[in-house]
Amino acid sequence: MSKSTISTFQLFQAFPDEEAARLYLESRLWPDGVRCPACNSGERITTRKRIGFYRCNACVNFDFTIRTGTIFERSKVPLHKWIYAMYLLVTARKGISSMQLAKEIGVTQKSAWFVLHRLREAHQVRRRLQPARPLTLAALPPNESCKGDANP
């Protein structure tokens, strides 16, 4: 196993419940503190009674969570199961089916299909946003057809 991959046991220790997953995702999405997904302001944010819910008073009482505006939006799948699904998708050599994911994370096949669809869609969007490297002849490795005489 490579050094950059953690074990399933370590993953479960890091994210035993939804609260741990929420705190981790908030620290990754908002490293400098909570920010409104609508106006990107962090000035007039107040916490709500429910844990993980915030209100932006600059946007005239706009309520949001870590899920708002992300792949987790409109999903009832707990966040720690999303993280486990990401782990399984990334570590599976030949991919993972929705039936297998459903068994692994304990959701219905329909929910597992939804999770996989969102993860694959997010991956495609990220690949489209990354600039493509220009293809030049210098970047291509030489092969055996380039060696020898110009006239065979």
Pick out its properties:
40% helix; 6% strand; single chain; 152 residues; globular; three-stranded antiparallel sheet; 2 domains; 5 helices; mainly alpha
In short:
Helix content is 40%, strand content 6%.
Average residue-wise pLDDT: 86
> H/E series, N to C?
HHEEEHHH
The strand order across the widest sheet is 1-2-3
Strand coverage percent: 5-15%
What is the general shape? globular
Instruction: List unreliable stretches of 5+ residues.
Output: 134-147
Q: What is the end-to-end distance? A: 47 Å
| Rg | 22 Å
Number of helices: 5
Count of DSSP E strands?
3
Indicate the percent of residues in helices. 40-55%
How many domains would you count in the coordinates?
2
> Biggest β-sheet, characterized?
3 strands, antiparallel
Which structural class best describes the helix and strand composition? mainly alpha
Task: Describe the protein.
- The chain has 152 residues and is mostly helical.
- The protein folds into 2 domains: 1-29 and 71-127, no CATH class; 32-70.
- It has helices spanning 8-14, 18-29, 79-91, 98-105, 109-129, and strands at 45-47, 54-56, 62-64.
- A 3-stranded antiparallel beta sheet has the order 1-2-3, with no helix packed on it.
- A hairpin with a 6-residue loop joins strand 1 (45-47) and strand 2 (54-56).
- It is globular.
